[in-house]
Amino acid sequence: SSDLKEIMNRDIRRITDGAMMAAIIGVMLFIDRQTAGMISGGFVWILPIPMVFYSAKYGMKNSWMLFIAVLLLTFVLGTPQTWFYMVSEMLIGILYGSGIYNKTSTRKLVIRTILLAVVADVLSMLVFASFFGYEIASEVVEYQKIVTRALGQAKQTLPSNIDLTGLIRNALVVSVVVGGVLNGLVTHLLSRLMLKRLRIYTADVSPISSYYPPKWSGYIGILGLVMFYYSSYNAFENALMQSFLQGFGMIGVMYLAAFGVIAAMIYTKIRFHVKGFAAIVIVIFAMMMPVAFALFGYFYITTDLHDRLIQGVDSHAYKDHEN
Asked: Rounded to two decimals, what is the model's pTM?
């Protein structure tokens, strides 16, 4: 009898929590509609948070009923654009929360969340662009006019062998990828903050120095850097091939530059004993000098620079402990 009562209480709590999360999501949908898409357009990383809480507490199997309820709410309160965003963000919430429920490592959770966010953003731009009323071609033309006008005011001209249209088009695609990465990271950070406040188990955060990719990825990254600059200054007969090389090259440069930032953060921690402010300064410099940071990241990945920096971190921590 006591076991049956406990099971009933648990089921009632689960239903109550589900109704509460559905109500919160319903309020967000209503606000989004009243503000002409403010949440789905600029604060999309808020949407998975209620589902993260529910999945982290009750697991993936019990989350699908809430997922269906949210879809029904979206059909009633949302727009066609909101339908797609809600489906993708609820899936991100379920996978992240169920990972917490199953005690998945933080690294896997971060990578999984970022990949899903990137896929959702790329699909929304490339596959559903015309359905959502966003035309990539017209956007490229507008940016091309802005760049041409700025060059004219500065009395500068681009070399004739540079395809400005292709560069802008690829930059737009890459910016969407970067936006997906940032959305995934913000979702991860907000979820951890919320779950800790609610005293729900979260795996320990791995130190930034532990994020070390395989060496072969460094060689692919430097190949992308070479491809980007070669395709930018040499016209190809096949426009699709040129766009592919430029897009792949941009991703390679950003990949190497990201690990160049990580290496610079580790070095400043050892050399100058600073953390937060140094990270902001390093990111600003990385945006100003992406190639320099990409080369630094290449050496960080492909040489023993990572091991030497880690030894410096360990010796620094040991000295602090001794003091």
From this structure: 0.70
